[in-house]
Design a protein that fits this description.
The complex is a heterodimer. Chain A is mainly beta. Chain A has 6 helices and 43 strands. Chain B folds into 2 domains: 137 residues, Immunoglobulin-like (Sandwich); 201 residues, no CATH class. Helices cover 15% and strands 36% of the residues of chain B. Chain B contains 5 helices and 27 strands. In chain B, the strands form 5 sheets. In chain B, strands 2, 3, 5, 7, 8, 9, 10, 11, 12, 15, 16, 20, 26 and 27 form a 14-stranded mixed sheet that branches. A 4-stranded antiparallel sheet of chain B has the order 4-13-14-23, with no helix packed on it. A 3-stranded antiparallel sheet of chain B has the order 17-19-18, with no helix packed on it. The longest helix of chain B has 15 residues. Classes of the chains: A mainly beta, B alpha+beta. At the A-B interface, helix 6, strand 16, strand 20, strand 36 and strand 37 of A face helix 1, strand 1, strand 2, strand 6 and strand 18 of B. Strand 36 of chain A pairs antiparallel with strand 6 of chain B, so a sheet runs across the interface.
Chain lengths: 796, 405
């Protein structure tokens, strides 16, 4: 199929999606109940929302029934108008508070986020955000086998090296997750690669998800309403991933009254605005963050009076901006338009003669519609454009000629999707949908060149490596649940994947099925067993370089020479709960195929990276492990201990003589322990101490134990390292303790201040080792010593 | 105060620029039981090809000694390599020519880890098996395959054609520069260098370009033909410099985006596609293009690209119309035909050696080096070299006895 016909198909699918977008209708019926709580439960099931509220609210009082009402906003309005309870609908969350209450202004975003695709499970989210929380149901025995809970308040108070905690930092403390380089956002989930994970922002992939070389997330926490982290039991609409899905959902702006906030942390300044444009009709949420890194760099340079560690003239430009407007069209339909843009750009001079730079940026424009159709169907549909690009550059004098080399990679993606869902009478819930993704990849292109001698001081055009791909996915999901007894979920996807290759207009097509199963059975009120099975595919590869989880890795499409990555995963375990104590334990087994091994990762800054396609090897991997999670939710003390024992390896026919070797971040033991202790919590302020202790087995490095002379006709003597095998040396264990204190001042303009110390032990944790041939000794490189941090936020 | 400020700010800066800490560590040197590094490249004598001679690799009647080095891998803590002094070394071959289908090449120790055989012929596409038995150790083994024949037939226009375009063109159609095999393609990797003769001797040209589809872009420089400029040559009053510039500018307009390879071009195999080499060196460039001899890989030297005002397009004009102007300098190609084992080995070394390190990638693990030695490291491969001169049938008359250096 040629390019033109593919575009036509894409266009047709897009039109269909848009038609769905405007085809909403109303037809929901309800039944009468008498208390606020019971009515809220009905609304939760119907609209997949989470209620967040103060437990002292009189929610057991009688009220009018809203079951016959149409929309969520209308039902909420009729339920609470005149009740003395104020409400605000923020995306999937409904916040309740007392009218004119000082305390109410200090509410947090939802403390728990559960799978909003499964209405029955939202029960577990019924928890207030204040310390005197009560939990309506036993959440331990309701935990989703595949989904980890990301608690936004806990997330915000975490200590991070940059002072800016984010969802990835929280996820790195969960079982089943191995981390990359220290302080970075790299995660390796159940033996997968970094690129096997997918972060989405309101369902749109966020490929360049990090700031500051991976030290923090590109997406501000202030605009996030919920974070779900799923590493098994994938849903029908979660595709193009083989390891985990980090789903970021953004808030809506306020429909009632404006609010503002300003925040500052060690390296990032930010501000948000949330306001109604048309009261109860149109809202706006905006956020901007910038990093003062550039001016700080220059100040450092001036104060130091010279280069630091051979680095001079450092420059940086870092920002992100998000805006979302939502229009409640009528009681049944809403439309939203959101734009996200981020940029990271750095440059420095290394060694006096090498001017190096790098950067990446994201642009996401998304239009979403949500509504209800006749027959009880709920429709969610939308279209989006997503652009991600990365750049690495180096200017260096080589043999008297100034080389100015730039390696640029870009991905342009157009998406349209539609999902229909509805409950079936006594037969569970069903979700059906379709998605089309058309992508234009242009990885590893080059370059510019200037200088003297035989070279003209002019830029030259880039050589492109453009290729196109299309993924058409049809998905279906059925789930059945009986309260406190069992739950089953089955999902399936069928993907029609097509791609051309650089310089070859012929498209190759591939039909790829995927499936997921989840089962939970409650053996007793305090004990449940669960299992998941996933058979997944991913239609692009990430050529990974330095394991920072940052965003200059190359994304390349699959094609016949690089078939889609596949993964098959089983998980089985149990969870139990005794009062405040909750324990989850399980085992997984995962097999991965068509993984890529990028032989030339060390050449990421070389013009030869343009020849990346010659240096990719495909192979397989396996991972198996045990996962434990213990949690205690107390009045003052909260504890969480996560432990993972796992073994992950890789096998590539053309690497390591075809012998299996450990994955680079195959950490056998991973222990993460977090604790928070509430010193004070009253109407005026709260003070919470928190800490994180982590112990992780060292990662693996390939270490040369000897050297020998090579034969070449390149014209110079070459000494080669003798490597016994790939990843033959296990680095020392990674140990770190972080301590912090979070102050919350519940004044007219609430403020939060988090002070922390990262790596209190000042342990020089290993990042890598190198051999100094002059001193003839090995040297260990560590990244982050003891590091104070702060984060301050004020709301208006 | 300045020192204090420096200390205070150095911590966060160190974080941000990823300097962190570097400290010495003690590792087990693993010096015991290090393997043997083998380097054994089987080759036949190199034919020298000139524009009036025909040669075929493997076909020369000369035979030569084969050489092998055997040294223990040097531990990181050791000062020098330790040569292998005692071993039984031989190379056995199978599937040789009918008159000599199998045989064994014995190697003798000549000192300092070097082992040599008697003068022997390496047979095309025969299978060679290396065996090194060191007392007290497992036998080191490797196998590789002899290279196929590569025939060169090169011609040049006689002086009589200097002004007779028609006759010269017919001659060129009959006698182009070309390599050919009995098959359509030369089915082995080839690494091509271009050199010019300077007062300091033969010098590799820095950049080459090709549109051959089998060319490996692993050593592309990130530069293009359009990045080149021309230094010109010393004009001896015959208009040479002006003609060179004319052709150069026309080439840039015709093929501005052709990528430049650094130092040489590696081709997976050679086929009949149009192939263009361009040097960035002061003035030299050569065009390799198809001459219509289907089934052969062609090299035609020095065709010009000029703009045809009537056709309103760029056309190629054979250099012989320019009365030998392109022969005013001395130039040669150096072809290294290697078998797949040696090719993969060399390629992995290039990637390791010639990557552009920067502050961050220096932290990254060096890539693996290919080896086909079982029980050791190194390489057992085959190589045939061929030098194609584009100047003089007898270089000794021009360059003396050191003409090949």
């Amino acid at each position: 199929m040629n390019m033109l016909s593919s575009m036509k198909i894409m266009k047709t699918k897009y039109i269909i999606a848009v038609v769905f977008m405007i085809s909403s209708g109303l037809c929901l019926k309800a039944q009468a109940q008498t208390t606020y709580i019971s009515e809220m439960n009905v609304l939760k099931d119907r609209f997949n929302v989470t209620f967040v509220y103060d437990s002292t609210l009189p929610l057991n009082g009688t009220c009018r029934s809203v079951r016959g009402r149409g929309s969520l906003s209308r039902s909420i309005r009729e339920l609470f108008d005149g009740s003395g309870i104020e409400y605000e609908i923020m995306g999937d969350t409904v916040v309740l508070k007392r009218v004119k209450s000082n305390v109410s202004a200090a509410y947090e975003a939802p403390i728990l986020v559960l799978d909003t695709l499964r209405p029955a499970r939202i029960e577990a989210a019924m928890r207030d955000t204040l310390r005197e929380a009560r939990i309506i149901s036993d959440r331990a025995v309701r935990r989703d086998a595949g989904t980890r809970i990301v608690a936004l308040p806990e997330l915000r108070t975490m200590v991070a090296a940059t002072g800016e905690a984010d969802a990835i930092k929280y996820i790195q403390t969960l079982p089943g997750v191995s981390t990359g380089a220290e302080g970075s956002s790299a995660i390796y989930v159940r033996g997968g690669n970094i690129g096997s994970n997918l972060t989405t922002l309101d369902g749109i992939p966020l490929y360049g998800g990090s700031h500051l070389l991976g030290l923090t997330s590109a997406c501000p926490t202030d605009v996030i309403s919920s974070v779900s982290f799923r590493l098994g039991g994938f849903h029908g609409d979660e595709s193009n991933i083989t390891a985990s899905h980090i789903g970021l959902r953004t808030n809506d702006g306020s429909f009632v009254k404006p609010s503002y906030s300003i925040s500052a942390s060690t390296f990032i300044l930010g501000g948000t605005v949330s306001l109604p444009i048309v009261r109860n009709k149109v809202s706006l949420l905006g956020s901007v963050r910038v990093s003062p890194l550039g001016p700080l760099f220059r100040a450092v340079q001036a104060a130091a009076g010279g280069a630091l560690d051979s680095l001079s003239r450092p420059r940086a430009a870092v920002y992100d901006a998000f805006a979302k407007t939502k229009w409640l069209v009528d009681d049944d339909n809403s439309l939203s338009l959101s734009v996200f843009n981020s940029l990271d750009a750095y440059s420095y001079v290394y060694g006096g003669d090498s001017e190096e730079s790098m950067g990446w940026n994201n642009l996401i424009v998304s239009v979403r519609h949500e509504g209800r159709l006749n027959g009880g169907w709920i429709v969610e549909d939308g279209a989006a454009y997503n652009r991600f690009s990365g750049r690495q550059g180096i200017i260096r004098d080589m043999n008297g000629t100034v080389n100015n080399i730039a390696i640029v990679s870009s991905l342009d993606e157009f998406m349209a999707d539609v999902v229909f869902s509805r409950p079936l009478a006594r037969a569970g819930d069903v979700r059906l949908g379709a998605r089309e993704r058309f992508a234009v990849f242009n990885p590893g292109t080059s370059s510019t060149f200037s200088g003297s001698g035989p070279l003209k001081p002019l830029d030259s055009p880039r050589s492109d490596h453009i290729s196109h791909s299309s993924i058409t996915t049809l998905h279906a999901q059925w789930s059945l649940e009986k309260e406190d007894s069992y739950e089953f979920m089955a999902s399936g996807r069928i993907n029609a994947y097509g791609a051309d290759q650089t310089g070859i207009s012929r498209w190759d097509w591939l039909i790829t099925p995927e499936a997921g199963l989840l089962a939970r059975v409650n053996l007793a009120k305090w004990l449940a067993v669960e299992a998941t099975f996933d058979w997944t595919a991913q239609f692009y590869h990430t050529l990974e370089g330095i394991p920072l989880g940052w965003s200059v890795d190359l994304l390349v499409p699959t094609n016949p020479a690089r078939p889609p990555e596949r993964a098959r995963q089983f998980y089985a375990g149990f969870f139990t709960s005794f009062g405040q104590h909750h324990l989850t334990a399980g085992a997984y087994d995962k097999v991965m195929s068509n993984l890529v091994y990028f032989l030339d990762a060390g050449m990421l800054f070389s013009p030869a990276i343009a020849g990346w396609k010659n240096n990719i090897k495909t192979g397989s991997g396996s991972s198996r492990g045990l996962e434990f999670l213990y949690e205690k939710d107390g009045e003052k003390l909260d504890l969480r201990v996560a432990y993972t024992y796992s073994k992950t390896d890789r096998t590539f026919e053309e690497v390591n003589e075809g012998n299996t070797f450990p994955a680079k971040f195959d950490r056998r033991h991973i222990l993460n322990s977090t604790a928070s202790f509430t010193i004070a919590d009253n109407a005026r302020r709260s003070i919470v101490l928190n800490g994180l202790f982590t112990y992780q087995s060292g990662h693996w490095e390939t270490v040369a134990v000897g050297e020998y002379q090579a034969y070449t006709f390149f014209g110079k003597d070459v000494t080669l390292d003798y490597l016994t095998s790939v990843n033959n040396y296990e680095m020392p264990a990674y140990i770190r303790l972080d301590l912090g204190c979070c102050f919350e001042f519940k004044t007219l303009h609430p403020q939060e201040l988090t002070l922390g110390v990262y790596n209190v032990l000042n342990r020089h944790n290993p990042f890598s080792i190198t051999y100094d041939s002059r001193s003839r000794e090995w040297r260990q490189i560590s990244l982050i010593p003891i590091m104070p941090s702060f984060n301050w936020r004020i709301r208006f | 105060m300045k020192l204090l400020a420096k200390l205070i700010i150095q911590i966060p800066v160190s974080l941000l620029i990823l300097t962190g800490c570097v400290e010495s560590i003690v590792m087990d040197p693993h010096d015991e039981d290090l393997p043997v590094a083998v380097c054994c490249i089987l080759r036949n004598p190199d034919p020298e090809s000139f524009y009036s001679l025909t040669q075929t690799t493997n076909a020369t009647l000369d035979i030569q000694r084969q050489t092998m080095t055997l040294n223990y891998v040097k531990g990181k803590s050791m000062e020098n390599h330790i040569p292998v002094e005692e071993a039984e070394v031989c190379v056995r071959y199978e599937n040789g020519p009918r008159k000599d289908p199998t045989g064994t090449i014995a190697f003798e120790h000549v000192g300092d880890g070097v082992w040599e055989s008697d003068s022997v012929r390496i047979y095309p596409e025969a299978e060679y098996y290396l065996s090194v038995l060191i007392p007290g150790k497992d036998t080191i083994r490797a196998e590789t395959t002899g290279l196929p024949d590569v025939q060169t037939a090169t011609y040049a226009p006689p002086e009589v054609f200097e002004y007779d375009d028609k006759e010269a063109e017919e001659y060129f159609l009959r006698h182009p520069y070309y390599f050919h095999n009995n098959q359509k393609d030369i089915d082995c990797p080839v690494w091509v260098f271009a050199q010019e003769y300077t007062p300091e001797g033969w010098k590799d040209l820095k950049y080459l370009a090709t549109d051959n589809p089998y060319a490996d872009d692993f050593n592309i420089s990130g530069k293009h033909l359009s990045d080149l400029t021309i230094l010109g040559t010393q004009d001896q009053g015959d208009g040479t410099d002006a003609r060179i510039r004319e052709v150069f500018e026309a080439s840039l307009k015709a093929m501005p985006n052709l990528q430049l390879h650094e130092g040489y071009i590696r081709m997976e195999k050679v086929d009949t596609s149009r192939t263009i080499f361009v040097s960035a060196g002061p003035i030299w460039y050569l065009n390799l293009e198809s001459n219509g001899y289907y089934g052969y890989f062609d090299i035609q030297a020095g065709s010009n690209i000029v703009y045809d005002e009537e056709k309103k397009e760029y056309i190629r004009v054979p250099v012989y119309k320019k009365r030998r102007w392109s022969w005013n300098q001395y130039f040669r190609f150096h072809f290294h035909f290697v078998n797949s084992d040696l090719d993969e080995y060399l390629r992995s070394i290039y990637i390791r050696e010639y990557k552009t390190d920067n502050y961050l990638t220096t932290l990254y693990t060096a890539p693996d080096i290919f080896s086909n030695i079982q029980g050791g490291v190194g390489i057992f491969g085959c190589e045939n070299q061929l030098v194609l001169f584009l100047r003089d049938p007898d270089p000794r008359s021009t360059f003396g006895e050191n003409w090949r250096k």
